[in-house]
Amino acid sequence: MLIAAFQVPAALAVVSALFTAALAQRLEPQINTWNSTFELTAEHIAAAGLTPGLAQSINVAVRFEQTNWATGSVLADPFYTSLPGNASNAPAGSLLKLEAYTDVSTYTIAPALALSRFVYQSRTFNGTLVPVSAYILWPYLPRGGASQAPVVVWGHGTSGIYAECAPSHVRNLWNQFTAPYTLALAGYAVVAPDYAGLGVPFYPNGDLIVHPYGLSPAHGNDLLYAAQAAKAAFPSRLTRDFVVMGHSQGGGAAWAAAEQQVKLKLPGYLGTIALAPTTDGLGLARTVGLVGVASIQVANAIISVFPNVSFSDILTPLGLASNQLLEQVQGCNSAYNALALPLLFSGAVLSQPEFEDGYYINRWQNISLTGGKDFQGPLLVLHGTADGSIPESFTSDAVEATCKRYPRNQLHYVRAQNVGHTSILYATQQLWMDWLDDRFGLGHSSAEARSEDSSHASSQTAARKRCTVSAVGTDTPRPLSQYQSELSYYLMLSQDIYTIA
């Protein structure tokens, strides 16, 4: 999603109050569990014009992030910084380097799971070859009982825009039980790219790799090529067949992968699951009046695509100072929210008014849109009606536009009543798990699913079934108001026996 991980409800004043309370409760240093001593310098504080309170909030947020690094800084980890000689010219989808056995003792992955990391070749939106890091989360027992584990390529939600924001070096792999752990515990091998610019920091020639945040077609390339490279790394342990799945930013990436697959036609592709996807991030930012805050995140990406645009074209001096501060400290979601939300509620102007509806930002919106385009199905889309980060109406509009233009493509849209942005993964877990089983031929209804793809089915019947919409949550065992709305916990490494629940 375009506005990081915080919610965008109708009444910003309510969020302001909640945010103030959250800062008081959550952004207090916990020295007994945090192993970071990060401190903003006087130069940082002066350059960004930070108040003492805001500086302390950012300090706490960055300490929290750094404490959750499993492998230290990516900038000091040869796995990310040392590339092989063929990294400049190996074809997209090539395996560049492999860490077959990753030490999981510093991660907080679930029991009975194992981890590998690898670097592979992908392509940017402009077609440039780019090295990308990824992890594979291994099941103990492959689903279906075969020696090869079926592959789900996972597209993560917004973690940040800098190299240190790579899920592969975060203790809980960023999304923990929302999907990766759940999938692997169910017997699927989870192949999870960090996305270009997250993890591997530099091209082979030493140039910085910019994360093209919000540019879903580029993220879609990363997902598809990761499947190829993972299979090359473990040909006897992973299936060639794979499903692409993602949430939020990763949901848009997964949908875009289905669109990219129309021309790439990579072998083994079985379909896509997109949950709470970003379909029009800039449109969302405009709708809720957050273009300025969003510009801090996308300025680097816009310039990477349109090099004749400068930072001063996009950002005001305050916006530029905020952008530079986050880059200098490699601040990810927590740090971004700690900085951006107070600026938002103070009414600070972060982006140049003439840029907010100018030529380049409109071009950016057009190339980053997902939906309304041809795609290779089947495509399962799920979204909660109580999503405060990406309103369900954006996905509904994208589905409607897609089905109108491509009514014979296989797309099923599920609206989950009173379900939020992250909780969509939990509320609909049975649905997407059954869908995965069907695609891999492991489920009870796999024969029925395959019959819909059969050439023997009448075209009229197939057309009626191609684009469908349904709803869940209309008859829950308990009133909808009684269900936990979103995550209220995080995972931390346990080093003391009394902390084990």
General description of the model:
- This protein is α/β, with parallel strands linked by helices and 501 residues long.
- It has two domains: 12-67 and 290-366, no CATH class; 78-280 and 370-474, Alpha/Beta hydrolase fold, catalytic domain (Rossmann fold), CATH 3.40.50.1820.
- It is built from 18 helices and ten strands.
- Strands 1-2-3-5-4-6-7-8-9-10 form a ten-stranded mixed beta sheet, sandwiched between helices.
- The two termini are 33 Å apart.
- One of its GO terms (biological process) is lipid catabolic process.
Outline: globular
Helix content: 25-40%
Structure classification: alpha/beta
Rg calculated over all Cα atoms: 22 Å
- How many angstroms separate the termini? 33 Å
**Major sheet: arrangement of strands:** 1-2-3-5-4-6-7-8-9-10
Count of spatially separate domains:
2
Q: What's the β-strand tally?
A: 10
> Helical segment tally?
18
User: What would you give as the CATH superfamily of the largest domain?
Assistant: Alpha/Beta hydrolase fold, catalytic domain
Largest sheet features = 10 strands, mixed
CATH class label of the largest domain: Alpha Beta
Task: Report the order of strands and helices.
Answer: HHHHEEEEHEHEHEHHHHHHEHEHHHHE
Named CATH architecture of the largest domain: 3-Layer(aba) Sandwich
**Mean of residue pLDDT values:** 89
CATH topology of the largest domain: Rossmann fold
Low-confidence stretches: 1-25, 29-33, 446-464
Q: Tell me what portion of residues adopts beta-strand conformation.
A: 5-15%
